Amino acid sequence: MQQYPKPLSRLINELSKLPGIGSKTAQRLAFYILSLDEREAGQLAEAITTAKRELRYCSVCGNLTDRDPCAICGDPSRKTDTICVVESPRDVMAMERGRVFRGKYHVLGGTLSPMDGIGPDQLRIKELLARLNGVKEVVIATNPDVEGEATAVYLWRLLSPMG
Questions:
Q1: Cα distance between residue 18 and residue 47, in whole Å
Q2: Cα–Cα distance between 121 and 13 in angstroms, integer?
Q3: Does the CA dihedral 107-109-113-118 come out positive or negative?
Q4: Within 10 A of 13 (CB to CB), how many other CB atoms are there?
Q5: CA dist 25 to 29, 47, 103, Å?
Q6: Reported pTM
Q7: Which terminus of the chain is more solvent-facing, meaning fewer CB atoms within 10 Å of its CB: N or C?
Q8: Contact at 8 Å (CB) between 95 and 73?
C-alpha cells in the first residue's frame, strides 16, 4: 500500500470517519481539499468550526438551530395542534422542502435499535410526551427501515391510549 505523508494520511483517516465515506472517497476528498487555494481551504475549515460552535438543538423540538427556539417553533403561523415526529433534523429539512406540512415537529434523535443499545430512554420520547397537551394529531414519519418501523410501532402503542 502506498505510504502517504503523515498530514495527508491523517486527513484521509478523518474524512473516512464520515458516514458513507469509504477509503477511496476519503482519498479523493483529501486530494480535492489539498487542491484548494489557501483562502478556499480556510473558508471550508471555518464553515465547519462555525457550524460546530454556533449550531445547537432547539429546546422545544430538537431540530438543529442557531437560535432557541428554532424558526419553526417560533413561527406563530404554524399549527400547534399537529406534531410530526421525525428521526433527525435532516428529516425536518426534507419535510420542509415539500412545503406541505404546516404543523410543528419533534425530532427523536434516532430510532430504537436494541442491537446498538438504543432504547426509549436514549431518544427524545419523554420530551414528546410532555408536548402533547393541546395536540390533536401526531404524525409519525420515521424512515421505512427496520429501526424506523419498530420506533413507529412503539410510539403508536405508547400514544394510541391517549386518543
A1: 16
A2: 33
A3: negative
A4: 13
A5: 6, 21, 39
A6: 0.85
A7: N
A8: no
Quickly state the pLDDT bin for 114 (edges 50, 70, 90): confident
- CA dist 161 and 105 (Å) reads 21
CA distance readout (Å), 42 to 16, 47, 66? 20, 8, 22
What is the pLDDT averaged over residues 43-62? Answer: 97
Q: Which amino acid is at 52?
A: K
What grid cell was written down for 49? 468550526
Cβ–Cβ under 8 Å, residues 135 and 162: no
Task: List the single range of 13-17, 106-110, 116-120 with lowest mean pLDDT.
Answer: 116-120
| Lowest-pLDDT range of 39-48, 83-92, 108-117 | 108-117
DSSP letter for 86, please: E
The length of the chain, given as a count of residues:
163
Q: For residue 2, is pLDDT > 80?
A: no
Q: Using only C-alpha atoms, what is the Rg of the chain?
A: 20
